[in-house]
Amino acid sequence: MSLINKILGQSTFAALVITLSTTAYALEFRVDGFASVVVGKAVHQVKRTDGSDTTYLANTPQGIYDGDWDLTPDSIIGLQLLTRFNDTFSITAQATAEGQNDFDLALEWAYLTYHLTPNTQILVGRQRLPLFYFSDFLEVGYAYHFVRPPQEVYDLPFDDFEGIQLEHRFTLNDWDGQIQVYAGNTKDTLTEPINQGQLNDIVGGVFSIGNHWLEFRAIYGHGDLSSNNISRQGVLQDTDNAIDTYFAGFAASVNLDDVMLLTEVVQIGFDDPLGPDQGLGGVKLTGWYVSAAYQWDTLTPYVVYAENTFDIDQESFFLTLANVKNQDLSSSAWTVGLRWDFMQQVALKTEYTKRHDHSSGGLQRILGKDREIDLLTLGFHAIF
Protein backbone atom coordinates (compact mmCIF):
# COMPACT_ATOMS: atom_id res chain seq x y z
CA MET A 1 0.00 0.00 0.00
CA SER A 2 1.42 3.41 -0.94
CA LEU A 3 2.13 6.01 1.72
CA ILE A 4 -0.64 8.33 0.51
CA ASN A 5 -3.22 5.54 0.52
CA LYS A 6 -2.06 4.49 3.98
CA ILE A 7 -2.37 8.06 5.26
CA LEU A 8 -5.81 8.55 3.78
CA GLY A 9 -6.88 5.28 5.34
CA GLN A 10 -5.62 6.30 8.79
CA SER A 11 -6.48 10.00 8.88
CA THR A 12 -10.03 11.13 9.55
CA PHE A 13 -9.01 14.49 8.11
CA ALA A 14 -8.85 13.14 4.58
CA ALA A 15 -12.62 13.64 4.33
CA LEU A 16 -14.83 16.41 5.61
CA VAL A 17 -17.58 14.08 6.76
CA ILE A 18 -17.00 10.91 8.79
CA THR A 19 -19.58 8.11 8.94
CA LEU A 20 -20.46 7.23 12.54
CA SER A 21 -22.81 4.70 14.08
CA THR A 22 -25.78 6.34 15.78
CA THR A 23 -28.68 5.44 17.99
CA ALA A 24 -32.21 6.77 17.73
CA TYR A 25 -32.03 9.05 20.75
CA ALA A 26 -28.37 9.66 21.55
CA LEU A 27 -25.90 12.11 20.07
CA GLU A 28 -22.64 10.69 18.79
CA PHE A 29 -19.39 12.61 19.14
CA ARG A 30 -15.98 12.11 17.63
CA VAL A 31 -12.90 14.21 18.40
CA ASP A 32 -9.70 13.95 16.37
CA GLY A 33 -6.51 15.93 16.66
CA PHE A 34 -3.39 16.80 14.73
CA ALA A 35 -0.14 18.56 15.55
CA SER A 36 2.95 19.78 13.75
CA VAL A 37 6.04 21.10 15.51
CA VAL A 38 8.36 22.50 12.85
CA VAL A 39 11.60 24.43 13.27
CA GLY A 40 13.53 26.05 10.46
CA LYS A 41 15.91 28.78 9.40
CA ALA A 42 17.28 30.40 6.28
CA VAL A 43 20.78 29.06 5.71
CA HIS A 44 21.49 31.30 2.71
CA GLN A 45 20.15 34.82 2.17
CA VAL A 46 21.00 37.66 -0.18
CA LYS A 47 20.73 41.42 0.25
CA ARG A 48 17.84 43.32 -1.23
CA THR A 49 18.42 46.77 -2.69
CA ASP A 50 17.20 48.34 0.57
CA GLY A 51 19.91 46.46 2.50
CA SER A 52 17.62 43.92 4.18
CA ASP A 53 18.07 40.16 3.94
CA THR A 54 15.67 37.99 1.96
CA THR A 55 13.14 35.90 3.93
CA TYR A 56 10.93 32.88 3.22
CA LEU A 57 7.14 33.11 3.58
CA ALA A 58 6.13 29.58 4.62
CA ASN A 59 2.64 30.33 5.89
CA THR A 60 0.52 33.34 4.90
CA PRO A 61 0.35 35.95 6.30
CA GLN A 62 2.96 36.02 9.10
CA GLY A 63 4.79 32.67 8.96
CA ILE A 64 8.18 34.02 7.85
CA TYR A 65 11.60 32.37 8.27
CA ASP A 66 14.77 34.46 8.47
CA GLY A 67 18.34 33.70 9.53
CA ASP A 68 17.41 32.54 13.06
CA TRP A 69 15.93 29.21 14.12
CA ASP A 70 12.18 29.64 14.51
CA LEU A 71 9.35 27.20 15.31
CA THR A 72 6.41 29.57 14.87
CA PRO A 73 5.86 29.81 11.06
CA ASP A 74 4.75 26.19 10.46
CA SER A 75 3.85 24.83 13.90
CA ILE A 76 0.18 24.15 14.62
CA ILE A 77 -2.12 22.08 16.80
CA GLY A 78 -5.76 21.41 16.01
CA LEU A 79 -8.88 19.53 17.05
CA GLN A 80 -11.84 18.50 14.92
CA LEU A 81 -15.21 17.66 16.46
CA LEU A 82 -17.98 15.86 14.60
CA THR A 83 -21.42 15.57 16.15
CA ARG A 84 -23.94 13.31 14.42
CA PHE A 85 -27.57 13.77 15.41
CA ASN A 86 -29.07 11.10 13.17
CA ASP A 87 -28.74 9.71 9.66
CA THR A 88 -29.61 13.11 8.20
CA PHE A 89 -27.75 15.86 10.08
CA SER A 90 -24.27 16.35 11.54
CA ILE A 91 -22.14 19.29 12.65
CA THR A 92 -18.38 19.61 12.12
CA ALA A 93 -16.13 22.12 13.88
CA GLN A 94 -12.37 22.57 13.76
CA ALA A 95 -10.25 24.77 16.03
CA THR A 96 -6.54 25.44 15.60
CA ALA A 97 -3.71 27.23 17.36
CA GLU A 98 -0.99 28.38 14.97
CA GLY A 99 2.52 29.47 15.85
CA GLN A 100 2.35 32.41 13.47
CA ASN A 101 -0.60 33.71 15.54
CA ASP A 102 1.10 33.22 18.93
CA PHE A 103 -0.83 29.93 19.28
CA ASP A 104 -4.07 31.80 19.91
CA LEU A 105 -7.05 29.46 19.55
CA ALA A 106 -9.21 30.14 16.50
CA LEU A 107 -12.36 28.45 15.19
CA GLU A 108 -11.58 27.60 11.55
CA TRP A 109 -14.58 25.51 10.54
CA ALA A 110 -18.15 25.27 11.81
CA TYR A 111 -20.72 23.86 9.41
CA LEU A 112 -23.90 21.80 9.28
CA THR A 113 -24.05 18.80 6.95
CA TYR A 114 -27.33 17.59 5.50
CA HIS A 115 -26.87 14.00 4.29
CA LEU A 116 -29.32 14.05 1.41
CA THR A 117 -28.40 10.54 0.24
CA PRO A 118 -25.52 8.18 1.08
CA ASN A 119 -23.55 9.80 -1.77
CA THR A 120 -24.84 13.38 -1.71
CA GLN A 121 -24.54 15.96 1.03
CA ILE A 122 -25.00 19.69 1.52
CA LEU A 123 -22.66 21.68 3.77
CA VAL A 124 -23.70 25.05 5.19
CA GLY A 125 -21.44 27.31 7.26
CA ARG A 126 -17.75 28.16 7.52
CA GLN A 127 -15.68 25.54 5.72
CA ARG A 128 -12.53 24.98 3.68
CA LEU A 129 -12.34 26.65 0.28
CA PRO A 130 -11.52 23.68 -2.02
CA LEU A 131 -8.85 25.31 -4.18
CA PHE A 132 -5.95 22.85 -4.00
CA TYR A 133 -5.23 19.14 -4.08
CA PHE A 134 -4.50 19.19 -0.34
CA SER A 135 -7.19 21.71 0.65
CA ASP A 136 -9.30 19.31 2.72
CA PHE A 137 -6.39 18.52 5.06
CA LEU A 138 -3.95 21.35 4.34
CA GLU A 139 -3.13 21.96 8.01
CA VAL A 140 -2.54 18.29 8.79
CA GLY A 141 1.18 17.96 8.12
CA TYR A 142 1.06 14.20 8.68
CA ALA A 143 -1.15 13.81 5.60
CA TYR A 144 1.54 14.52 2.97
CA HIS A 145 5.18 13.60 2.55
CA PHE A 146 6.75 17.10 2.49
CA VAL A 147 6.92 19.49 5.45
CA ARG A 148 4.57 21.91 3.67
CA PRO A 149 3.02 21.92 0.19
CA PRO A 150 5.18 23.94 -2.24
CA GLN A 151 4.68 27.64 -1.57
CA GLU A 152 5.15 28.49 -5.24
CA VAL A 153 1.59 27.12 -5.56
CA TYR A 154 0.06 27.23 -2.06
CA ASP A 155 0.86 30.83 -1.11
CA LEU A 156 -2.74 32.08 -1.15
CA PRO A 157 -4.26 34.09 1.72
CA PHE A 158 -7.81 32.75 1.36
CA ASP A 159 -8.33 29.36 3.00
CA ASP A 160 -11.91 29.30 4.25
CA PHE A 161 -15.29 30.63 3.17
CA GLU A 162 -18.76 31.05 4.61
CA GLY A 163 -21.47 29.67 2.42
CA ILE A 164 -22.97 26.50 0.98
CA GLN A 165 -21.44 23.52 -0.78
CA LEU A 166 -22.91 20.48 -2.54
CA GLU A 167 -20.82 17.29 -2.67
CA HIS A 168 -21.76 14.25 -4.73
CA ARG A 169 -19.76 11.02 -4.95
CA PHE A 170 -20.16 8.56 -7.80
CA THR A 171 -18.68 5.35 -9.22
CA LEU A 172 -17.96 4.68 -12.87
CA ASN A 173 -16.68 1.13 -13.46
CA ASP A 174 -13.34 1.01 -11.60
CA TRP A 175 -13.26 4.78 -11.06
CA ASP A 176 -14.48 6.71 -8.02
CA GLY A 177 -15.28 10.39 -8.44
CA GLN A 178 -16.63 13.43 -6.69
CA ILE A 179 -18.28 16.65 -7.83
CA GLN A 180 -18.32 19.75 -5.60
CA VAL A 181 -20.19 22.99 -6.25
CA TYR A 182 -19.94 25.89 -3.81
CA ALA A 183 -20.89 29.54 -3.29
CA GLY A 184 -20.23 32.07 -0.54
CA ASN A 185 -17.95 34.82 0.78
CA THR A 186 -14.70 35.02 2.70
CA LYS A 187 -12.84 37.56 4.79
CA ASP A 188 -9.21 37.16 5.82
CA THR A 189 -6.30 39.29 6.92
CA LEU A 190 -3.87 39.70 4.04
CA THR A 191 -0.27 40.84 3.90
CA GLU A 192 0.70 44.38 2.91
CA PRO A 193 -0.47 46.34 1.05
CA ILE A 194 -3.85 44.63 0.69
CA ASN A 195 -4.87 44.13 4.36
CA GLN A 196 -8.51 43.42 5.23
CA GLY A 197 -9.19 41.92 1.85
CA GLN A 198 -12.45 40.20 1.06
CA LEU A 199 -13.47 37.77 -1.65
CA ASN A 200 -17.21 38.04 -2.21
CA ASP A 201 -19.73 36.36 -4.49
CA ILE A 202 -17.57 33.25 -4.80
CA VAL A 203 -18.84 30.56 -7.14
CA GLY A 204 -16.81 27.48 -7.98
CA GLY A 205 -16.63 23.80 -8.65
CA VAL A 206 -14.34 20.80 -8.30
CA PHE A 207 -14.27 17.58 -10.30
CA SER A 208 -12.08 14.69 -9.18
CA ILE A 209 -11.87 11.09 -10.34
CA GLY A 210 -9.45 8.24 -9.69
CA ASN A 211 -8.81 4.57 -9.30
CA HIS A 212 -6.35 2.57 -7.21
CA TRP A 213 -3.28 4.09 -8.90
CA LEU A 214 -4.28 7.25 -10.80
CA GLU A 215 -6.19 10.38 -9.78
CA PHE A 216 -7.16 13.66 -11.49
CA ARG A 217 -8.58 16.83 -9.97
CA ALA A 218 -9.76 19.98 -11.78
CA ILE A 219 -11.04 23.17 -10.15
CA TYR A 220 -12.39 26.55 -11.14
CA GLY A 221 -13.57 29.43 -8.98
CA HIS A 222 -14.60 33.02 -9.43
CA GLY A 223 -15.15 35.94 -7.06
CA ASP A 224 -14.86 39.70 -6.45
CA LEU A 225 -11.74 40.79 -4.53
CA SER A 226 -11.93 44.06 -2.62
CA SER A 227 -9.99 45.94 0.05
CA ASN A 228 -9.94 49.38 1.64
CA ASN A 229 -6.16 49.50 1.17
CA ILE A 230 -5.74 49.04 -2.59
CA SER A 231 -6.61 51.40 -5.40
CA ARG A 232 -6.27 51.76 -9.15
CA GLN A 233 -5.69 55.15 -10.80
CA GLY A 234 -6.91 56.85 -7.65
CA VAL A 235 -10.09 54.76 -7.35
CA LEU A 236 -10.40 52.77 -4.13
CA GLN A 237 -11.03 49.11 -4.96
CA ASP A 238 -13.57 48.54 -2.23
CA THR A 239 -16.73 46.46 -2.57
CA ASP A 240 -18.17 49.01 -5.03
CA ASN A 241 -15.12 48.67 -7.30
CA ALA A 242 -14.10 45.08 -6.65
CA ILE A 243 -11.50 43.25 -8.75
CA ASP A 244 -12.93 40.44 -10.84
CA THR A 245 -10.83 37.39 -9.88
CA TYR A 246 -10.66 33.80 -11.11
CA PHE A 247 -8.83 30.72 -9.85
CA ALA A 248 -8.18 27.62 -11.97
CA GLY A 249 -6.16 24.51 -11.22
CA PHE A 250 -5.38 20.95 -12.18
CA ALA A 251 -3.67 18.13 -10.30
CA ALA A 252 -2.70 14.55 -11.11
CA SER A 253 -1.24 11.85 -8.89
CA VAL A 254 0.20 8.42 -9.67
CA ASN A 255 0.76 5.69 -7.07
CA LEU A 256 2.64 2.64 -8.35
CA ASP A 257 3.45 0.35 -5.45
CA ASP A 258 6.05 2.38 -3.51
CA VAL A 259 6.52 5.16 -6.08
CA MET A 260 4.45 8.33 -5.84
CA LEU A 261 4.30 11.06 -8.47
CA LEU A 262 2.29 14.25 -8.03
CA THR A 263 1.90 17.43 -10.06
CA GLU A 264 -0.30 20.48 -9.63
CA VAL A 265 -0.70 23.74 -11.52
CA VAL A 266 -2.78 26.77 -10.54
CA GLN A 267 -3.47 30.18 -12.04
CA ILE A 268 -5.06 33.24 -10.43
CA GLY A 269 -6.08 36.14 -12.66
CA PHE A 270 -7.30 39.68 -11.93
CA ASP A 271 -9.11 42.01 -14.32
CA ASP A 272 -7.30 44.96 -12.67
CA PRO A 273 -3.74 44.93 -11.33
CA LEU A 274 -3.57 43.66 -7.76
CA GLY A 275 -1.34 46.06 -5.86
CA PRO A 276 -1.01 49.62 -4.55
CA ASP A 277 -1.97 52.51 -6.79
CA GLN A 278 0.84 53.27 -9.29
CA GLY A 279 2.91 50.45 -7.80
CA LEU A 280 3.93 46.93 -8.78
CA GLY A 281 0.43 45.73 -9.60
CA GLY A 282 0.16 42.18 -10.96
CA VAL A 283 -2.51 40.78 -13.25
CA LYS A 284 -1.84 37.02 -13.28
CA LEU A 285 -0.18 34.55 -10.92
CA THR A 286 0.83 31.10 -12.16
CA GLY A 287 2.45 28.35 -10.11
CA TRP A 288 3.18 24.67 -10.61
CA TYR A 289 5.21 21.83 -9.12
CA VAL A 290 6.08 18.20 -9.69
CA SER A 291 7.03 15.82 -6.88
CA ALA A 292 8.43 12.29 -6.76
CA ALA A 293 8.67 10.12 -3.65
CA TYR A 294 9.68 6.55 -2.91
CA GLN A 295 8.48 4.64 0.13
CA TRP A 296 11.14 2.30 1.47
CA ASP A 297 9.75 0.62 4.59
CA THR A 298 9.33 3.47 7.10
CA LEU A 299 11.46 5.92 5.10
CA THR A 300 10.20 8.09 2.25
CA PRO A 301 12.77 10.21 0.41
CA TYR A 302 11.30 12.81 -1.94
CA VAL A 303 12.16 15.62 -4.33
CA VAL A 304 10.07 18.60 -5.47
CA TYR A 305 10.60 21.12 -8.24
CA ALA A 306 8.34 24.21 -8.30
CA GLU A 307 7.99 27.46 -10.24
CA ASN A 308 6.01 30.65 -9.71
CA THR A 309 5.45 33.70 -11.93
CA PHE A 310 3.58 36.95 -11.18
CA ASP A 311 2.96 39.01 -14.33
CA ILE A 312 3.33 42.74 -13.70
CA ASP A 313 0.98 45.39 -15.11
CA GLN A 314 2.65 47.36 -17.90
CA GLU A 315 0.46 50.43 -17.38
CA SER A 316 1.98 51.21 -13.99
CA PHE A 317 3.16 54.81 -13.80
CA PHE A 318 5.95 53.70 -11.49
CA LEU A 319 7.31 51.20 -14.01
CA THR A 320 6.94 53.65 -16.90
CA LEU A 321 9.13 56.21 -15.14
CA ALA A 322 11.74 53.51 -14.47
CA ASN A 323 11.59 52.44 -18.14
CA VAL A 324 10.74 48.91 -17.06
CA LYS A 325 8.76 46.87 -19.59
CA ASN A 326 7.57 43.28 -20.00
CA GLN A 327 8.41 42.40 -16.43
CA ASP A 328 7.45 39.63 -14.04
CA LEU A 329 8.34 38.42 -10.56
CA SER A 330 9.32 34.77 -10.82
CA SER A 331 11.20 32.08 -8.93
CA SER A 332 11.98 28.38 -8.97
CA ALA A 333 12.78 26.04 -6.10
CA TRP A 334 14.26 22.59 -5.59
CA THR A 335 13.37 20.72 -2.41
CA VAL A 336 14.86 17.43 -1.22
CA GLY A 337 13.59 15.75 1.91
CA LEU A 338 13.11 12.61 3.95
CA ARG A 339 10.07 11.41 5.88
CA TRP A 340 10.45 8.79 8.63
CA ASP A 341 7.30 7.09 9.99
CA PHE A 342 9.03 5.84 13.11
CA MET A 343 5.82 5.27 15.13
CA GLN A 344 2.17 4.70 14.34
CA GLN A 345 0.54 8.01 13.34
CA VAL A 346 3.78 9.91 14.01
CA ALA A 347 6.30 11.08 11.41
CA LEU A 348 9.55 13.04 11.38
CA LYS A 349 10.55 15.05 8.30
CA THR A 350 13.58 17.01 7.24
CA GLU A 351 13.93 18.98 4.03
CA TYR A 352 16.14 21.51 2.30
CA THR A 353 14.74 24.06 -0.15
CA LYS A 354 16.88 26.08 -2.55
CA ARG A 355 15.00 28.93 -4.22
CA HIS A 356 16.32 31.04 -7.11
CA ASP A 357 14.99 34.44 -8.18
CA HIS A 358 14.32 34.65 -11.93
CA SER A 359 12.53 38.00 -11.92
CA SER A 360 13.06 40.28 -14.88
CA GLY A 361 16.21 42.40 -14.86
CA GLY A 362 14.35 45.68 -14.42
CA LEU A 363 12.62 44.46 -11.28
CA GLN A 364 15.84 43.01 -9.90
CA ARG A 365 17.41 46.46 -10.26
CA ILE A 366 14.54 47.90 -8.23
CA LEU A 367 14.05 45.15 -5.62
CA GLY A 368 17.17 43.02 -5.78
CA LYS A 369 16.88 39.23 -5.81
CA ASP A 370 13.92 39.37 -3.47
CA ARG A 371 13.13 35.64 -3.76
CA GLU A 372 16.65 34.19 -3.51
CA ILE A 373 17.00 32.05 -0.36
CA ASP A 374 17.80 28.58 0.99
CA LEU A 375 15.72 27.08 3.80
CA LEU A 376 16.30 24.14 6.16
CA THR A 377 13.33 22.75 8.13
CA LEU A 378 12.77 19.87 10.58
CA GLY A 379 9.28 18.72 11.46
CA PHE A 380 7.42 16.46 13.89
CA HIS A 381 3.89 15.55 12.72
CA ALA A 382 1.20 13.48 14.41
CA ILE A 383 -2.50 12.66 14.30
CA PHE A 384 -4.42 11.47 17.32
Tags for this entry?
single chain; 384 residues; mainly beta; Porin; two-stranded antiparallel sheet; 4 helices; 20 strands; globular; disordered N terminus
Structure report:
The structure is a single chain. The chain starts with a helix and ends with a strand. The model is unreliable at 1-25 (pLDDT under 50). By secondary structure, it is mostly beta strands. The protein has a single domain (36-73, 119-135, 142-383), classed as Porin (Beta Barrel), CATH 2.40.160. It has helices at 3-10, 151-154, 317-321, 361-367; strands at 28-45, 56-59, 63-65, 76-84, 89-98, 105-117, 120-128, 160-172, 175-187, 198-210, 214-226, 231-232, 235-236, 243-256, 259-274, 282-294, 299-312, 328-343, 346-357, 373-383.
Short description:
This protein is mainly beta and 384 residues long. Helix content is 6%, strand content 57%. It has a single domain (36-73, 119-135, 142-383), classed as Porin (Beta Barrel).
Helix content: under 10%
> Biggest sheet, open or closed, and with what strands and sense?
16 strands, antiparallel, barrel
Structural class: mainly beta
The radius of gyration over CA amounts to 21 Å
Number of strands: 20
User: Poorly predicted ranges (pLDDT <50, ≥5 residues)?
Assistant: 1-25
Mean pLDDT: 86
Q: What would you call the shape?
A: globular
Which CATH class applies here? Answer: Mainly Beta
Q: In CATH terms, what is the architecture?
A: Beta Barrel
Distance between the termini: 21 Å
Stated plainly, the CATH topology is called Porin
For the biggest β-sheet, the strand order reads 1-4-5-6-7-8-9-10-11-14-15-16-17-18-19-20
Question: How much of the sequence is in beta strands?
Answer: over 45%
Helix-strand topology string: HEEEEEEEHEEEEEEEEEEHEEHE
How many H/I helical runs?
4
